[in-house]
């Protein structure tokens, strides 16, 4: 598909972050000009610019280096669409959140409920937990002999994903014997871990996750592209959008680089005590973008040590909201509560359909004013009204506008947030791309389940202070 | 159904909130004993105890005063289950979050995907937004002539719900003429608003929302009970559980009243700067309890004025997480990030099924240790390991344990959180039950859509500072 770059460019409106609008909590024009700010900004910009494509910034190359892979994915997806009734992603965290967000954004909002002749592809599920009730529920509703499973783990040893794989593979082998292998596609590291070894031994079709692409930055590699292609999303459009955003964010001039500006707005706000970042898209299609972003932002910036080795405890806690729905849940708090957050609204200029609100309620004036409008007008009015209300209450907010929601604008948005995160991490002078804080929990799990080599941790757990009954109410 | 109260009682374990375990951020045993604390606690307990059933605390009576209503609901639900293929709730906020949470908790996790002969009732949808794309998507997949709509709004003038109603009613009338009325049930105030007038005129079956029951406290009145009964949830069990919890929380002795203790733990933590409250259930069934709780907690406690009329900006921001899924998204931040949050884990002793992890991976020791365990053991180990890891990192947390997930334990949990919220609001000395902060946005919406009587607000909006182009990047 072709997209008009000029009319399809996403916009950043940060008026309501500025003190001239929002009052004392806002950012002053002069804040962008202090020598220390300019020095830090320059350094952060440079480190991201020079880091692109290197180390763990392989994600910045994905829009440029996947031509062959994309062809392979499209061919594979075509065959899956024809031959399978169900497609199930087995993955967690970065292997699940991107596929879920992209599916929600670009497929029919009740895709699985559509008849096959309209879907023209398999039903789509992402299993991102190890709750036994959920696994049983999935097995109740799929026909495993008509299902393609996509096992996704870069390390090849993610406990949750490998658990799911072991269960599914066992059933497939019982039912299909040697043909089990035709029901599994592995997406994993080319060089490391167990899954690649298992895949080679069993003969699975395999896609690779590049070394320099971490889980939360992986939506634009085969982790995200294969599931997207299976549900007929224009993956070339996604990559084009991402490439366009990379090119729009090449300037070290803050006012010409929207991802850099967003990072700066958040950074200055964090320094000013705003430890909460709300993301509130006004579109059901964008609902799970907030979930995907929550991982990206939380896991990248939540760190306890700087690159210089200094102790710190930084990171803004992402909060997911949905407009207008959560106006009826969270906006009371946002308006009247503490001055502790930055709200990112995401709006859409043109929804992909128009629904009219019919007339016929003349007797009831406080309903009748809706009649003759469209739902489109209502949701836009509510977005603007909520922006107005929180601004009036002095709460920092800014808005990202999408001309419409399609593969090209979604690709832009994904890259926008990845760049913003990289810039923000550089401004905080932390390692944006690691996640050492999850090791403790993993190791404790291994110890509890008796994994060889974890005797010391098992001992540590056994020697931990016992729970005191006086602090349990039962 | 019968439930064993003793074995089905939920438990609160707050060891990891105490300084003896968690270190400097924790609560000291002595904090419970200071004269000012004891005075405030007594006052808060008394105001809730004496308020029950009065004013906006009608929800505390719901387990006692609905015998006839329950019979009517059960009869109505029976007929809907027999005669309709789809059941759609039209509602937002408190009219949607409870029904969604209860459905997710007590129905099959892929309920709508089950064949009708297993479901034995209609497919279930809750429309809680006014995105035109979502409305169109719903209309694509339901057969409106086989659908029962439950329009739920206490005020009878919620713009989003009435918009949905207008659209649906118009289609129903076009297709079914006078029989349209047999496809709509109204749940609304008996005395106030438009919906009751419309319902009487059109002849809709109607259920009433008691005056003293606000949206976010309404799950145990017909708002929640009718949808629950339609999907065959044991609503009597829900009410029994809620009643049991009310009775378990009658003591002014903190250590014998779990809801009061939770409120106190959160209150002391808020005073100590913990402005974020994470809720992390380890069960897919409880996923949307975190959403329901987010409204309850945010809208009740997010206030800018005390009952004495003093200016304040209080309220803890609720964050929704899901175990184990969000270990791979948020726990890095929780472990290494700022000391700004309290984490509430919710665990389940016995899941409703057991799934074994098969053997056959002996060659790969760092996968093989999983084999022979169950998913149940894995999810429990991960919950305990995460609790251990965040505790080791000095982050405040406590755990609510459900013996299993059923109507009786869910009823307990809902009442637990409502009581906790009431106590916490009383401790903050605010009006827990109002939501004045949403008026500004509503009024601005009315003005933007040209509702009569909003000329002044329209003028105010027109005179608001214009957006400056220099703060827009496009």
- Widest beta sheet: strand line-up of chain A: 1-12-11-7-10
Which bin fits the share of residues in helices of chain A?
A: 40-55%
Structural class of the secondary structure composition of chain A?
alpha/beta
Query: What is the straight-line distance between the termini of chain A?
Result: 61 Å
Molecular structure report:
The structure is a homodimer of 474-residue chains. By secondary structure, chain A is of the alpha/beta class. Helix content of chain A is 44%, strand content 13%. The first copy, chain A, has a 5-stranded mixed beta sheet with strand order 1-12-11-7-10, with helices on both faces. In chain A, helix 3 (67-83) packs parallel to helix 9 (222-230) and helix 11 (258-271) crosses helix 16 (407-428). Chains A and B meet through strand 1, helix 6, helix 7, helix 8 and helix 12 of A and strand 1, helix 6, helix 7, helix 8 and helix 12 of B.
Quickly list its features.
homodimer, five-stranded parallel sheet, 18 helices, globular, alpha/beta, 474 residues, five-stranded mixed sheet, 13 strands
